[in-house]
Amino acid sequence: MKLTIHEEYRHIDITIDLQSNQRTVYPGACPNSLFLVCKPWDIDNLNIYLKIAIDTEGRLTYVWTTESSEANHYLHLDCTYFKENNKVEKTDAMMETIEGLFSGRIKIDNYKVAVGGTAQVKPLNLEREEEKIGKQIFLA
Fold it and tell me: Is 80 helix (H, G, I), strand (E, B) or coil?
């Protein structure tokens, strides 16, 4: 099922495909990874979740799913994988990926993820990210 969401305030369309997505995000499929989740939108009668795994090398795997999860609008640690999240080494490569999500340099199907506090498992290096994107990051 393809679904297009129009984000009016950003003037963009985000198209996600819930059926053809063959990626899986769970410890057996994504070893040595940090597991994160968010629920980007409130859509009547349709719960859509974004699940992300970031491995110690900084590689990102994601899946859009309607599978029930405890999630809010901010990307945060997936409590389903509490034990795995505590065991994985938090590397600089992993943090660079989280910083890229935070700044919008890395988007998921054109969607800029709102990174929450628990996803910031180590302090973000905003100076490094500002160099990558070529502009200053302002915090609210």
Answer: helix
Tens of pLDDT, residues 45-67: 788 889 999 999 999 999 888 87
Give long-range contacts, CB 8 A cutoff, 24+ apart: 62-65.
Answer: 62/23, 62/25, 62/108, 63/21, 63/23, 63/24, 63/25, 64/16, 64/17, 64/18, 64/21, 64/109, 65/18, 65/21
CA distances (Å), origin 16, targets 36, 64, 78, 139 = 18, 7, 21, 29
CA separation (Å) from 55 to 84, 97, 130? 12, 10, 23
Radius of gyration of the chain (CA): 15
Do residues 76 and 116 make contact, with C-beta atoms less than 8 angstroms apart?
yes
Per-residue pLDDT of 89-110, as tens digits, reads 999 999 999 999 999 999 998 8
Q: Where are the domains of the chain?
A: 2-133
> Cα(12)–Cα(27) distance, rounded to whole angstroms?
33
